[in-house]
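Provenance

Sequences were taken from public entries as deposited. Structures were produced by running a predictor on each sequence independently, with no templates supplied. The record for Large ribosomal subunit protein uL10m from Anopheles culicifacies is shown for reference.
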Amino acid sequence: MSNLIINGLLQSRNPLLTFRRFRGKINIQRPRPPHYERARVLEIIKPYYKKPEFNAPCVDAERLKQSKMVDNPYETIIAREARNWFEHSNLVALLHVNSIKQEDMFKVQVALHRHNITVKVYGKSIMRKAVADTKYEAILPLFEAKTAIIFSPESQKIKQILNVLKKTPQLVLMGGIVEGKLLSRNELVAYATMPDLTTVRAQFAAVLESAGGKIVADLQCHQRQLVNLLDAYAKNVSEPDQRNAGSVTDGKEES
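Predicted structure for Large ribosomal subunit protein uL10m:
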């Protein structure tokens, strides 16, 4: 009985796996249709592509053009503000902005704000509206990438700007506008080494005064020479007369 239980009931049998090849050759050009349920699923998930119209590229281009021509009132207001900054600033510096943390950018803004200098960042569409058909239109190619703008009412603030930018290599000076004239980076650096307008005026006044004094001296040179010669001649003539007068007085005293 125990043998029957062990051999008959408790004995485990491993399944036998047999691999069989497909009985026929697979036809790639004419495959067998799928099962009905699978065919229904495949029909549902079949992608559907709309046939493009004949003039679709032209229509899409016209729609894109019209979407760009849509006037944005907010951009118009910001563009008016940007133009106002350009017109009322004697110094405008253009900076290329590389990857920089907002914390570092805020430190730069604070450092420049201490010198009454403002930093602004505008997009390309806003700048196109702000400087289009103006004398500042030449700076538009600089706004293909992210560009920051520095505005200052005083043109001599370029020294402070260069000192701040030395500590921030992420901001690269590309050029600027000084009193309505577009300058490159090298020209701005050279302009920073020049003295202020008051000093230059004082130097120019000194040069004019020295030139005038030299002209007066040259005009009076001949007169002074004539006066000196006459004075020397008068002294030479007066000395023999004094000697003769002295000898006459000495003879009288002896007699």
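Strands lie at 91-97, 118-121, 147-152, 171-178, 181-184.
The mean pLDDT is 80.
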